[in-house]
Write a structure and sequence with these properties.
Porin, 2 domains, 8-stranded antiparallel barrel, two-stranded antiparallel ribbon, 12 helices, 14 strands, 36% helix, globular
């Protein structure tokens, strides 16, 4: 495996040198393009909504864009790292307990999920970039400049991923091989999506959205396929994005203005109506014990929750939306907590109202109140002694703080408090001290802290 990885890296580095040489000899050909005949690059002006706060003009060569006045994000290196670095750090930080929680969530709902579409899907954004370029759409770079930038990016990604895989020696969740961290599929997919964004995000932000949606699908699929921990996927996404940022930086130092057609600065302004749809991920924190009657108390512990969430805003400050999530909540009986633990596996669907208020140029504070239903898939909490109905009422209230990561992309940190209403049935059992049958309506209260990554529209 190590010899093969080294051979792949050697080939990538060799290919990079070849492409660099070819591109350097084609610079003068690129200069014959309409954009370079006048010596100027195409000027792209980002639209500034009337509600954007404190915007200033920012110049990169002959390119004009608008960003918040005095913003830290005007710094080039901050722009390069503010997405990739947090993802990479999150990957290292969630390797142990959090990663295990999400694996158990996967095992609870899709233990037999095995599909290989992600082996091919990871290359889709890169294929789209080449097809769009071949169709004559003028994006950021000439062919030569783009290929050199991409070659640098691929080399950096491959070196980093393989170096970490064979130094970290993390066992895959399926127990197959000790090279799980980070996810190479995810790194490749996000690298390809970042390339597509770099080259044609200036043509339409929805091209970028499509690329990152595909990359996210690859990352989630690696978890569902039991090939990677969530920490592997987060780190892989960060590596893929950072590789492109530095790959393009190296190419920019070589080419300077040659073969550069369009360049846009990220638009960090808050959308007037922040409609969104995205991926919901969080940790379920233990709350109050549940009184089941007959002297039995159910003790919840930390679990995990994942799903999708979206909201449509009819007004700047309010909208309607919903979420569909699955959760795994470990539980134990209070007097038997040192014995076998069980879990409540609950799916929930809820709809309700959303409120949002802009804070400065990039942030929004949000509130929501929702109601819906839950479906308990694991009905035998204690075999032959305690059962619950499969369906019940679900409610949730929540607060959040969202930030515009870049145009049409947002990240939201949230804290949700909800309740799973259940009807519990207990039958006589001498071991558990249940003397008579009982039926009781109970509510399992939960608090979920996590992050939603969203497409803004």
């Amino acid at each position: 495996m190590q010899i093969r990885a080294f051979s792949e890296l050697s080939f990538l580095l060799w290919a990079t040198v070849v492409v660099l040489f070819a591109a350097s000899t084609s610079q003068y050909a690129a200069a014959a393009s309409p954009a370079d005949e006048t010596g100027d690059t195409t000027t792209i002006v980002a639209e500034v909504p009337a509600f954007a706060i404190d915007t200033i003009t920012y110049n990169i060569g002959d390119t004009i864009a608008y960003i918040p006045a005095g913003s830290l994000y005007a710094n080039k290196y901050v722009q390069m790292t503010y997405v990739g670095v947090p993802l990479l750090v999150s990957g290292f930080a969630t390797q142990y307990y959090v990663a295990e929680q999400f694996k158990e969530l996967r095992d609870a709902y899709v233990p037999t999920f095995r599909h290989k579409y992600d082996d091919y899907l990871q290359y889709t954004p890169a294929a789209a970039m080449l097809i769009i370029k071949a169709c004559g759409v003028k994006g950021r770079s000439s062919w030569g400049r783009m290929l050199v930038s991409d070659a640098f990016s691929v080399a950096l990604m491959a070196i980093t991923v393989n170096g970490l895989k064979y130094s970290m020696q993390t066992m895959r969740p399926d127990g197959s091989t000790p090279n799980s961290f980070p996810s190479g599929h995810t790194a490749t997919a996000f690298m390809a999506a970042a390339m597509l964004d770099k080259e044609f995000g200036c043509v339409s932000p929805w091209i970028s959205v499509g690329g990152y949606v595909v990359a996210t699908t690859v990352g989630v699929s690696r978890i569902l396929n039991n090939r990677h921990w969530i920490s592997d996927v987060l780190a892989g996404a960060g590596i893929g994005i950072l590789s492109v940022e530095f790959g393009y930086l190296f190419a920019d130092l070589i080419f300077k203005e040659k073969g550069l057609y369009q360049l846009t600065h990220p638009d960090f302004s808050v959308p007037e109506k922040p409609s969104n749809a995205g991926l919901y991920m969080g940790m379920v924190l233990p709350t109050a014990a549940v009184d089941l009657g007959n002297g039995l108390r159910l003790l919840p512990s930390m679990g995990s929750r994942m799903g999708v969430e979206g909201a449509w805003y009819a007004h700047r400050y309010w909208g309607i939306g919903g979420e569909a999530t699955v959760a795994r909540i470990p539980v134990a009986l209070e007097s038997f907590s040192e014995e076998q633990a069980y879990s409540i596996n609950a799916a929930s669907i809820a709809v309700g109202g959303y409120g949002s208020y802009p804070i400065g140029a990039r942030f929004r504070a949000g509130l929501k109140a929702m109601i819906g239903c839950n479906i308990i898939s694991d009905v035998n909490i204690v075999p032959d002694a305690l059962q619950v109905d499969k369906a019940g009422l679900y409610y949730e209230i929540g607060a959040s703080l969202s930030v515009v990561a870049r145009r049409n992309f947002g990240v939201k940190a949230f804290c949700d408090y909800g309740g799973y209403a259940m009807t519990a049935y207990s039958t006589p059992n001498s071991y558990y001290g249940i003397e008579h049958s009982d039926k009781r309506s109970v509510i399992l209260h939960t608090a979920t802290i996590g992050v939603t990554t969203s497409v803004l529209f």
